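User: For my dataset I need records formatted as: sequence, then structure tokens, nothing else. Please produce one.
Assistant:
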Amino acid sequence: MRTSNNLIGLVNFITFLLSIPILGGGIWLSNRANTTDCMRFLQWPLIVIGISIMVVSLAGFAGACYRNKFLLWLYLFVMFFVIAALIGFIIFAYAVTDKGSGRFVMNRRYLDYYLGDYSGWLKDRVTDDGYWGQIRSCVRDSGVCKKMGKRLHGVPETPLMFNFRKLSPIESGCCKPPTECGYTYVNETVWIPGGDMIGPNPDCMLWNNDQRLLCYHCSSCKAGVLGSLKQSWRKVSVINIVVLIILVIFYVIAYAAYRNVKRMDNDEPVGEARMTKSHPSHFEI
């Protein structure tokens, strides 16, 4: 029995450690929500799941140390639903970020972002007038466009250098006009109309060199926010998938060890089925 308890205690300790990257991912998303992505809701499920795994693992660890079967049972019961919630979160994150990505632009390293390429719940959430006003203000106040300026040996960035920069989705969508509009580069956030305007894109008329406006009212800015959210959520989801696989493995190990403890408490040889006993004991939770 001591060996089984030690095994359960070790599994719970490792499970506690696995909660750290999940909680860290939620905190990272929270930081991104305040500075870049400006969407303050997805981080909370991750934070709650991470804290739940921490608390439940500590309960299981205490149960193993003090041989408290109720705490061990509670660990297995609650952890089942926590794992189910993590699976649901991963499926949700991939489902809502399935559509849409940046478009390649000829002779440019950066991508252009178009709202029409996105669809589904996340797009509806971002483009909702009530939410978008807050998101737009958050993006502007984060200073992401102000930070785009670069100088090489004291010399401002040239148009050619800018064309081969790798811009973030928000930098591309909110801080410059769409490439198809034909604006001429002056600096990173100042563009003047070129010889002709091409394409029917309404964003071409919404661009404004006023640093408080830029392209914050453009559809491309909304698409840039969606592109940034997709990148952030996918990064966190990859970590969560790895943690989930390890959690499931250790959950199965903990369950097997718990069953072994129950058999020993009932004076059953390890591996003997309960049905083979001449007088099976009453059902226990």
